[in-house]
Each structure stands twice: as C-alpha cells, then as structure tokens.
Amino acid sequence: MPRTTHDGNGGGMTIARRIAAGRRAMPAAMSKIADVVSESPAAPVELTITELAERAGTSPATVTRFCRALGFDGYTQFRVGVASEIGRGGADQSWQADIGQEFGAEDEAGKVLQTLVALHVENLETTADHLDLDNVLRVADAIAASRHVDIYGVGGSGVIAREFQARMYRIGINAHSWSDVHEGLTSAVMQDESSVAIGISSTGRTEETVQMLSQARASGAFTVAITHDTDSWLAGLADVSLATAEPTPYLRPDDLSVKHSQLLVLDLLYLLVAQQTFGVATTHLAASAMAVSGHRRVAKTPRTPAPQEENR
C-alpha cells in the first residue's frame, strides 16, 4: 500500500489513485470495497458504513481497515475526503447523507421526537402487515422442537442475534449466536435435521451471514432468514423467510428503524415459542429470576411526609 498520512492527504494523491496504487496489496475483502468505490465514487457519501459493507459483501470492520489503509483515521474522515473530491463537501449535503432528509439542523427537540416516533411506528406497522403468520408459526414450531438453535448476524444484526439468543436461552432453548464467521461456520457444520439456523441481515447480502446459513443448510438444519429483501441471497437459502420493513431513505442511520423491525419479529417468535413450551419456559424463567434476585436493590420506599405540628 502507498505511504499515506493519517489526515488523509496521501502525498497529494487523489483517493482514486491511492486505491489503484494499493489494489494489488489489498486482501480480497478490501478489494470488494475498492470495487464498489471505483464503480460508484459517491457511494461513501451516500451510504453509512454498514450499508457500504453490505453492498461490498463484507463487514464494517473491514471498511474501517480499508479507510486506514488509504491514510484516513476512519470512515468519517474518508467520507469527508471523498465528498471534497467530488464537490459534495457542503454541510447541508453531509447532514442529509448522515442524519436524514426528514430532520433539519435547527429543528426543535419536540419535532425531532415526533418525526422519529412516526417513522419507527410506520416501520413496525409495515413489518406487521407483511408478516406471514403461518410461516412465523412454522418457525416457532421448529424452534420449540429443536435440539439446537444457531443465530447468525454481523454488525447491528449481530446485536439483535445476541438479544434473541439470550431470550431463547432463558426459556430453556439451547440457542447460540455467532457474529464471527469462523466460529459460526464451525457451529454450522455440526448442525443436523434436529437443528434450526437463523440468519439475520437487513439486506440479505451480508457475506458472512450468507456463508454461515449456507453451511447450516448443507448440514441439514431447518433454515430461517430475517431480511427485508425476500429475493436476496440469504432468503434464497432459507426454508422460511420472514420479511421486515425496508429501511426508509429519510431516516439515518436507517439501521435504527431496521433493528426495531427485526426485534418485533423476534419478540413474536419468542412469545410463540414460550407458549408452546409453557411448562419448561415458566420453570426456567422463575429459576433465572431467582438466580439474579440478589443482585437487585430493594425498591425505595416512598418517603412519608412528617406530620405537621398542631396549631396551638
């Protein structure tokens, strides 16, 4: 890679020239990012780090390494450099790309709150309207009868995967979540017809998640995709695909609304599985509540006002 400085100057070289000069030394995952940026120079200005990673079929961490290899401290500095070179470095354009078209820099807090509530509620309602409840019940049945559940997700979807794993585990389901592709593949290869594997990716194109779910399918597991794109690579691997609302172009970072849609689907699955395993679920919930009860402080007793002295 060419020698560059941490402020992104790169010895006066343009970003395109820096990418071209370092292509041969780039690992395959970083080369995918270079391909996206070369084909769509404005992509870093228009996309969040997660979106760029998903478009390139890689991870946000790899995007950060790509930026540092070009001499930038991180993705924010890289985007500023790209915006400056293509003449889109104005504050208004940057605000719309990073924050959203529905919000103004001078909006009052109350307006921002109401706009957020409306957008998030719309996403939840859209997800609910498009959910196939027969498919949801099919997945819940499979989880309740399984010996093992694998849940795959990277980045923001990885956070959701871990949340779902914790809920499943607490009601007695042998569930495990994986964000690292090596660890996930190691688990996936050990699954069989008595297992359920769930892949979570908003776009359905996250390479690591696709790989893990693909391996679980090859091992015989019942596979589930949770994505807004039912025609995506991830959905194509799944026995059942559960659709979430597509991110709105007016809300940034749009993965916030995506997370809420994903959580709605997973909350529904959690409750349906708990219903089907009622005896086991309630026993485990009571036991886990007892186990952590000693770590919770007693609620404060409301203070009783001192009685006033009688008038004499």
TrEMBL record:
Keywords: DNA-binding, Transcription, Transcription regulation
Statement: the UniProt record of this protein carries the keyword Cell division: no
Gene3D superfamilies tied to this protein: Glucose-6-phosphate isomerase like protein, domain 1 (3.40.50.10490), Winged helix-like DNA-binding domain superfamily/Winged helix DNA-binding domain (1.10.10.10)
Disordered as annotated region, ranges: 292-312
Coiled-coil boundaries: none
Domain HTH rpiR-type: start-end pairs: 13-89
Record's keyword annotation contains DNA-binding: yes
All copies of domain SIS, residue ranges: 139-279
Pfam families, sorted: HTH_6, SIS
Highest taxon in the source lineage: Bacteria
InterPro entries to which the protein is assigned, alphabetical: Homeodomain-like_sf, HTH_RpiR, RpiR-like, RpiR-like_SIS, SIS_dom, SIS_dom_sf, WH-like_DNA-bd_sf
PANTHER family linked: GLUCOKINASE, HTH-TYPE TRANSCRIPTIONAL REGULATOR HEXR-RELATED
Record protein name field: MurR/RpiR family transcriptional regulator
Naturally occurring in which organism (per UniProt): Microbacterium bandirmense
Taxonomic classification: Bacteria, Bacillati, Actinomycetota, Actinomycetes, Micrococcales
